[in-house]
Amino acid sequence: MKIFKIRSSIILLFFTAFAGFIFSQQNNIKVSVTADHNDWIYSLNEKVKFSVSVSLDGKPVKNAAIQYEIGPEKMKPTQTQSVVLKDEILQIDGGTLTTPGFLRCKVKTEINGKKYESSATAAYSPEQIQPTTTLPDDFIKFWENAIAENAKIPMDAKVDLWKERSNDKVNAYKVSLQNCKTGMRVYGILCVPKAPGKYPAVLQVPGAGVRPYIGDVKLAEQGIITFQIGIHGIPVTLDSIVYANLRFGALDNYPSFNMDNRDNYYYKHVYLGCLRANDFICSLPEFDGKTLAVSGGSQGGALSIVTAALDKRVRLLSCFYPALCDLNGYQYGRAGGWPHLLSKPEFSSPSKIEVSRYYDVVNFARFIRVPGFYSFGFNDETCPPTSMYSAYNSIKAPKTLFIVKEAGHAAQPEQYKKQWDYMIQNLRN
User: Cβ–Cβ contacts within 10 Å for residue 31, how many?
Assistant: First the structure.
C-alpha cells in the first residue's frame, strides 16, 4: 500500500509537471502584427501593409486560425476577415486614411482554448491632428473664479509621520488637506529628504480608479520632495477591501457624476485638489520655493496638464498617455479620450457636451507655458492616440515627445528611463 502511494505521488507529480510544461509552452505563443514602415508613420493617402504571424517559442504555428479587423481606432472596422495562416507571414493590404489619424489592425487567435491578440496602429500625419473640442469664451474666467473660491477655504493641513515608510534618508507622512468646501479633504503621502536643506518638489497625480498609495520614497532619496495624492476625498492608507467596495459601489463610473452641471461636475474638486496639494508643497520649509513639477499617467497625465495650466507655480511637467483629451471626438466620427462617455447616447446630450468643454484636457493644453515630457504609444486603446495628439499638438510650450509605437496603455521600461532622466536633469538645473 505504501509503495502504491509513493508511485501515485510520483505519477501525480509527473503529470503536474507535464501540465505545467504544456502551460508554459502555451504561454510562449506570440501573435505579431507590424506595419511596413519602421516607425509606423505614413503620409495621407499612403497605403499601409500589415504583416501578421503566430509563433511558439519563435517558430511559426502551422495552420493557425486568426481573425483580423482593420479600421480607425474605436470606430467600426472597415475590414474584417477570418484566415488560416498557410504561410509563416500573412501580408494584409490595410488601406489608407485621407485625414490625419490612426488606422489599427487588430488580430486575434485561439490556441488550445486560450485566446491571444495583438495590434499594430499606423499613424497618418499625427502632427496635423487638431482637436474637435472648442474653448468656451469664459473658460479662463470660470477657472479663475473657482480657484479664488477655493482659496477662501482654509487648508487645515493634518500631517502625521508614517514611521513604517520612513527610513534613514527620508521621512514619510500621511497628509490630508481641506479642499473645495468645508469638510471635504484631499489625502496623500508626503516624502521629504531628512538631510537639512532646500529641495525641489514633484506633485504626483493618480491614474483612474480607487486605490491606496504609499508615497514615492525612492525619488525622495534622490533629494526631491514628493507628494503623492488620491482624488476621492478618502484616506489613502486604508485596507484594500475599502477601495474595492468603493470602486464597484459608490464610486463606480465616477467620471460621469454631475456631468450636467459645470459647477458640480466630479472633476471640479479633483482639479482644485491638485492645486491645493501645490499650496501645501509651497508651504513646506524644506521646499526650495521655485522648482515645482507635476507628474502622472493616464488620468494622472490629464491632471498633470491641467495642474500645469492652472498653476503658475509649476515649472515642469511629465505626462504619460493622458486621458480626458478631446472627449467630443465621437461626435465627429473619430475616437475621443477616456472615459469615452460622449460615445454613448445617454451621455452625448448638448448639456453634457457643453460641460465637457470646461474639463477637456485639450483646453488646458492650450495654456501650458512650461517645459514638459510626454510619452505614449500608438497601440493604446484606453487613451486613443488621436485624442492624445489633439492635446499634444495644442501645446505651444517647449515639449519633448517620446513615442514607443508598440506600447498600449502602460509605460514600458524605456519610457520610465527617459522620464526619470528628464525629471532628474530638469529638477536639478
Answer: 21
